[in-house]
Amino acid sequence: MSLLYPDMLKNRITDITPDDLKKLGVCGLLLDVDNTLTTHGSQVLDPAISDWIDNMKSLGFIPTIVSNAPPGRVAPFAKRLGLRYISFACKPFPIGFIRGARRLGLKRKECVAIGDQTFTDIIGANLAGVHSIQLLPILPEHQITLRFKRRFEGYILKRYRKKQKKSYTNS
Q1: Relative to the CA of 121, which of 31, 57, 101, 129 has its CA 20 to 30 Å away?
Q2: What is the pLDDT of residues 92-116, one digit of tens each?
């Protein structure tokens, strides 16, 4: 599998089911913040996402936040959700994901990174040996660098979908 491809692609975090996670053989959830749990830069948390996390916890899945954002950005979400967090995770380098798995007391293959960016979340997870689920961004960003990266992600996700469709029709 390519370093650029996730194990799964979903629209929103709330589209991820317990069966999806069981298929991957994971119980640790390494969650990004921006455009995963909330819109980029926002401090507002959708109640449906909070409910999803509570439901996952009640089913035995163990979440923690792994974000490149500073503690002032990440801590409010972690506190609100009752989660520990790793800020300044240095994604796409694997260290944040490795620390996240270690913090949860799990093997890396028992964890899944859930995030919206190919060039940070997915590459970093794949380098760390962690499963990955890519989400579509909640809202488009206005920063020129993110818009530039999103354009390339579009090509990558198009190829990923084509490959998935081909493997689905061959099975």
Answers
A1: 57
A2: 999 999 999 999 999 999 999 999 9
Task: Note whether 151 and 143 are within 8 A (CB).
Answer: no
Q: Are 153 and 119 within 8 A, CB to CB? A: yes
CATH architecture assigned to 8-140: 3-Layer(aba) Sandwich (3.40)
Beta strand extents in 44-90 (DSSP E only): 62-66, 85-86
Tally: H helices and E strands in the chain: 6, 6
Token output for 154: 């579009």
At 9, give phi and psi (nearest 5°): -130, 130
Which residues touch 2 (CB under 8 Å, ≥6 apart)? none
In angstroms, the CA 133 to CA 20 distance is 10
Q: How far apart are CA 117 and CA 169, in angstroms?
A: 27
Question: CA 74, CA 72: separation in Å to the nearest integer?
Answer: 6
At 10, phi and psi to the nearest 5?
Answer: -130, 160
